Automatic annotation (TrEMBL):
Keywords noted in UniProt: Membrane, Transmembrane, Transmembrane helix
Transmembrane segments: 53-78, 121-140, 147-168, 180-201, 213-233, 245-269
Keyword Membrane: yes
UniProt keyword Plastid, yes or no: no
Location of the region described as Disordered in the Swiss-Prot/TrEMBL record: 1-25
Organism, as annotated: Ralstonia soli
Higher taxonomy: Bacteria, Pseudomonadati, Pseudomonadota, Betaproteobacteria, Burkholderiales
Entry protein name: Transmembrane protein
Domain of life per record: Bacteria
Amino acid sequence: MSAKPLPDEASAGAPPDKRRVRGHQPKRVIGYRGDRILMHRAMRRLAFPLSRWVDVLGIPLALTIGYCAIWPMVAALWQRIIGFWNVALEGQVRLAAVKALVPGFGSIPYPHSDAALPTSVQWLVGMIVTLVLLFGTRFISGRALPLAYWLRFIGVVQASAQFYFFIWPASFPYDGGGSIGSLMQASVVVVLITPWLYALIYNVLDFGFVRKLVLSVMGMAYLTVFIPFQYTLASVVLLKGSMLWYPQIFLLWAVFLQFGMLVGFYAWAMSWKARGAKNAT
């Protein structure tokens, strides 16, 4: 009884296109159920025609120039919004101005409040809030667990502020008015880089010129309206709660929050169907 030939020996007499070469097996394209295994989108090459450079460079450049041109109207809008809250809050938050970091922008209006260092009562209230954020969230579970993690992170940031103001309260280098002015300066820069950010992560895709333009305009317009309300509220928080809450505002509720909103707009825009996917099955 003859022994069965080895696999390599059995394929030796087969045609060249039928032979299996060890280490060079053909790629598997059929799944175990018989369906075709499609290439993952992360491994596909992005089609980038030369005309798309208009979307990547032309849209952000035009919007940046346009925003610089309408900046006097934006500054006037911010003055009216802050002025309204100045009257509504009976002068507790005043309208002030700081020199812009962007050349040619002149000054930036911002809400000014006379926030002070925390008193012993304010520090104690902050400590209670911190303990609730750190240990009270242990009762949050299930689908709300990501919320618990976020609240604990807020608690960790506030715990560091509580420790600092307990040990070195007099050495805190910032004041309520000037700090908000600096944050407003940074926020203007965020508005200006918004179309360039979308140009790098969205305009390179095939969503059409109009959709790319709408996304950038939408993000810039939203931030333009949101910023004066955001920092007016921050000024009130610092006025009522003291500078104890400034690290919280600076790290989580200023520019970080603005970028979070831009990411939200981007996620929504990514749900729009690309032009090449309109007729896809």
